[in-house]
């Protein structure tokens, strides 16, 4: 950083104070090129105390970008430098590091705007000239109103979106009286408190006092303003990127930290996708969705076809907009349907604000999902309330130097599909109490609730402490349960338990209809990587499916060979009866009888299926390999990028997984692994049996053909789907069954033996 001379700011030598730093990110100059075309797509991150507090927009293909963006940052430790990092944005790939710099806040004068020029450096290559960043900064003492507003906006954990109530933040807020610095302390159940803020301006040493009633401070927070639904219809006249004059296009979407990737349509310049993606809208003014189109290339980097942007602030709400977006830096255009709708009921609140304990609010929720409202808003299937109460005996992730005291700073992440909410952090505690209530709208009753506990670290990413995955259909309403925390792969226990109380209210008819619709996609996560254990596991799973078919064929062959005369005689008579009297309705009837027979075995207690430990063993081996891979990746960095042979192996690995999962899902449907789905299958098969019995096959085929031929005419932008495959996608595979299996709590661990919380 540049030197600014001696500061006249009177910074206390002890506990730091509350300041507000106003930063204007002006421009960059002569930045390093990180893309093949000799340019970069730079953006800037500000970090304070290891946490990201600001991220700029991306300026595409420019080594001298102009941002002119402003940020207000709350500073509670003036001696902590502001860390500025510049990256080159690569959509869907790891962003390239350009350079970084530090801004020493103690060198700034209070209440005076200063222009700063920062030279970017790379610690690994200190002699390289990586360009410069120009800023304007103003450091001022914080006041009550601005501090409260900034606390709500700027406290984040790395790239995760965190919203915390003022109640959680006040205990760590410093204030000053005279020459002494203090922190507010407050019992967890206080309702009224006095907050004192003092300006440290030496010319205006005035006190500001105000009483704040906590119940009025947004104790039940709605976490986003709306949902943006984007339907990718098609592309037209795209640029040819392959030698054959065609392309293998796919599309990537990005809104803030939310990312999606479409399927790949091979060998075409006019691809048809018909895929839908939902984004959370956090800003009332809207936002900008970045869209890029790529050509898939095996064994090398994908080719860039073009880009476009959708400015959501220009679109009216509660209305579907058809957009034909021309591609910049390329050829052709995309056809999209974009709809902005009101926010789903996703909230976070304290235990004192309980929707289901309020009789009036509970009746409204029950009425919303009653049978009378079945065909009103089909996508709103149900309501989920999660009480995150406490955890016990967590793993100690931090070890301090004083007497080797082990501790953790745990916080909890609650996820349902793409909805992700966080609790506050309880510092220096292995038995934290959060006492938070999260509510979600359920769009698919077959979703899995994931609750993960992390240890917060200021200087690096959060450490994993434990996780549980709970299918919504397995939840017992209103029961407080202790869930044993599992490892990352959900294959075995780790240290600690978490206490949750969960309630699910849903409309069964809506849930059944939603089962036959496409499953919601998750945000883009880590790219698939080659794993020896995963490849072997998928091969063994597929082998089991094939062996089941081989066993069935051998059984039939043994009937032909009369290995067991009574059995062969019974099979022969059954064959003659079925063939002579065969009708098409007997196919679903036979499947119906198979479901009924398995149900009878389960109810009568005669189901003697053995737990398959092969998958569990393979998952444990895979976790060990993942741990080794994580350590290796830290050492090797990006030395081992994707090669052609690795991509082929990953494809084979995924194909094996799909085939094995398909066979396991069919088996688990008939095995009553998920009773809701098995009952739904019985209802469907009963309907099919009756239809096939009373209606001639030619009429059924005629209706099916007319529907298929006229579907595009009746709804040109309908998303293609297969109801049977959508149904099977909700049935868990053997791996998922094992991951969702609830572990038994250690009997030696009892709530009565819980230790008192350590003071935060």
UniProtKB/TrEMBL annotation:
Keywords: Calcium, Cytoplasmic vesicle, Endoplasmic reticulum, Endosome, Membrane, Metal-binding, Repeat, Synapse, Transmembrane, Transmembrane helix
Entries under SUPFAM superfamilies matching the protein: C2 domain (Calcium/lipid-binding domain, CaLB)
Annotated PANTHER family: C2 DOMAIN-CONTAINING PROTEIN, DYSFERLIN-RELATED
Main location: membrane
Single GO biological process annotation from the record: regulation of neurotransmitter secretion
Subcellular location field: Cytoplasmic vesicle, Secretory vesicle, Synaptic vesicle membrane; Endoplasmic reticulum membrane; Recycling endosome
Taxonomic superkingdom: Eukaryota
C2 domain segment(s): 1-118, 208-325, 359-485
Membrane topology according to the record: Multi-pass membrane protein
Protein name: Multiple C2 and transmembrane domain-containing protein 1
Gene Ontology CC: endoplasmic reticulum membrane; recycling endosome; synaptic vesicle membrane
Bilayer-spanning residue ranges: 570-600, 676-704
GO MF, one example: calcium ion binding
Coiled-coil spans in chain: none
Organism of origin: Gymnorhina tibicen (Australian magpie)
Family: Belongs to the MCTP family.
């Amino acid at each position: 950083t540049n030197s600014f001379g001696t500061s006249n700011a009177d910074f206390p030598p002890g506990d730091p104070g509350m300041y507000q730093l106003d930063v204007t990110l002006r421009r960059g100059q002569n930045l390093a090129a990180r893309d093949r075309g000799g340019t970069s797509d730079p953006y800037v991150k500000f970090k304070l105390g290891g946490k990201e507090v600001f991220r700029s927009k991306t300026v595409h293909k420019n080594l001298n970008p102009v941002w002119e963006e402003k940020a207000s940052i709350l500073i509670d430790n003036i001696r902590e430098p502001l860390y500025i990092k510049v990256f080159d944005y690569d959509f869907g790939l790891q962003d390239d590091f350009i350079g970084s710099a530090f801004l020493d806040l103690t060198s700034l004068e209070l209440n005076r705007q200063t222009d700063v020029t920062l030279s970017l450096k790379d610690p690994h290559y200190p002699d390289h000239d990586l360009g410069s960043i120009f800023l304007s900064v103003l450091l001022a003492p914080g006041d009550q109103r601005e501090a409260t507003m900034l606390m709500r906006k700027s406290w984040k954990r790395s790239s995760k979106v965190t919203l915390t109530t003022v109640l959680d933040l006040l205990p760590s807020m410093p204030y000053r009286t005279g020459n002494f610095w203090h922190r507010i302390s407050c019992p967890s159940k206080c309702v009224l408190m006095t907050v004192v803020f003092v300006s440290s301006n030496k010319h205006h040493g005035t006190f500001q006092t105000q009483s704040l009633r906590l119940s009025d401070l947004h104790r039940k927070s709605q976490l986003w303003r709306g949902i943006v639904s984007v339907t990718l219809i098609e592309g037209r006249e795209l640029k040819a990127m392959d030698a054959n004059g065609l392309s293998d296009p796919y599309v990537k979407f990005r809104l803030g930290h939310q990312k999606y990737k479409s399927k790949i349509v091979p060998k075409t310049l006019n691809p048809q996708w018909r895929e839908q993606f939902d984004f959370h809208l956090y800003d009332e003014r809207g936002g900008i969705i970045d869209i890029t189109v790529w050509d898939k290339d095996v064994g090398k980097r994908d080719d860039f076809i073009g880009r476009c942007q959708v400015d959501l602030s220009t679109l009216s709400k509660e209305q579907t907009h058809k957009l034909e977006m021309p591609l910049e830096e390329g050829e052709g255009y995309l056809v999209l349907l974009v709809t902005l709708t009101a926010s789903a009921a996703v909230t976070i609140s304290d235990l004192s604000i309980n929707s289901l304990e309020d009789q009036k609010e509970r009746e409204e929720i029950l009425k919303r999902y009653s049978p009378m409202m079945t065909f009103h808003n089909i996508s709103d299937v149900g309501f989920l309330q999660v009480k995150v109460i406490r955890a016990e005996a967590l793993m100690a992730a931090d070890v301090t130097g004083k007497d080797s005291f082990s501790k953790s700073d745990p916080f909890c992440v609650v996820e349902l599909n793409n909805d992700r909410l966080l609790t506050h952090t309880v510092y220096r505690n292995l038995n934290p109490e959060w006492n938070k209530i999260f509510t979600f709208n359920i769009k698919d009753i077959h979703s899995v609730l994931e609750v993960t506990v992390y240890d917060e670290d200021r200087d690096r990413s959060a450490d994993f402490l434990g996780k549980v995955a709970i299918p919504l259909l397995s939840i017992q309403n209103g029961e407080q349960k202790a869930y044993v925390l599992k490892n990352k792969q959900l294959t075995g226990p780790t240290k600690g338990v978490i206490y949750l109380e969960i309630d699910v209210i849903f409309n069964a008819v809506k849930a059944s209809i939603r089962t036959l619709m496409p499953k919601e996609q998750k945000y883009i996560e880590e790219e698939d990587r080659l794993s020896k254990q995963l490849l072997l596991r998928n091969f063994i799973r597929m082998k089991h499916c094939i062996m089941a078919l081989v066993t069935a064929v051998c059984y039939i062959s043994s009937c032909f060979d009369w290995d067991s005369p009574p059995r062969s005689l019974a099979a022969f008579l059954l064959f003659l009866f079925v063939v002579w009297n065969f009708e098409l309705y007997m196919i679903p009837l036979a499947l119906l009888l198979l479901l009924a027979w398995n149900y009878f075995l389960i109810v009568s207690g005669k189901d003697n299926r053995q737990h398959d430990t092969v998958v569990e063993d393979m998952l444990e081996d895979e976790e060990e390999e993942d741990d080794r891979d994580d350590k290796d990746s830290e050492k090797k960095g990006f030395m081992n990028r994707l090669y052609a042979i690795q991509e082929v192996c990953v494809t084979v690995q995924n194909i094996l997984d799909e085939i094995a999962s398909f066979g396991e899902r069919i088996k688990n449907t008939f095995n009553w692994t998920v009773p809701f789905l098995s009952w739904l299958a019985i209802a469907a098969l009963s309907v099919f049996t009756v239809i096939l019995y009373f209606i001639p096959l030619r009429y059924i085929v005629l209706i099916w053909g007319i529907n298929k031929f006229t579907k595009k005419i009746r709804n040109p932008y309908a998303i293609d789907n297969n109801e049977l495959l959508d149904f099977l996608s909700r049935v868990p595979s053997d791996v998922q069954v094992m991951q969702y299996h609830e572990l038994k709590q250690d009997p030696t661990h009892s709530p009565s033996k819980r230790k008192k919380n350590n003071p935060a």
